[in-house]
Amino acid sequence: DMRFWFKKKEFNIDDCVPMTLEEVDATRKKIQDIFDPYIGGDKKDNVNTFRRVADKYGVYYLTLEKFYYGEKQSIRVAAKLVKKLKEAGI
């Protein structure tokens, strides 16, 4: 409801992901090892690769792409991504 856009979001324990920074880094390394053979100079092909994998695992492709390249993103977003990837068996 748009009337309450200014309200502070309530705490939800499901938003908390018990994850260490080492786990996030280890998963990033795994993802980089998996993707490296498929990522090349063609940006369009790279985006399609990220999109296909993201669709398969139910994650947002830009989050996955930023994670792969090690770009700045919130640790909460990275931890949620790692949780989904681990649930998927990566």
Number of strands: 0
Structural class: mainly alpha
| Low-confidence runs of at least 5 consecutive residues | none
Tell me what portion of residues adopts beta-strand conformation.
Answer: under 5%
Instruction: Indicate the mean pLDDT.
Output: 87
H/E topology pattern:
HHHH
Number of helical elements: 4
Radius of gyration: 15 Å
- The gross shape turns out to be globular
Measure the end-to-end span.
37 Å
**What would you call the quaternary organization?**
single chain
The major sheet is characterized as: none
List keywords for this structure.
90 residues; 58% helix; mainly alpha
Folded structure, characterized:
- The chain starts with 20 loop residues before the first helix and ends with a helix.
- It has 90 residues and is an all-alpha fold.
- The chain has four helices and no strands.
- The mean pLDDT is 87.
- Helices cover 58% and strands 0% of the residues.
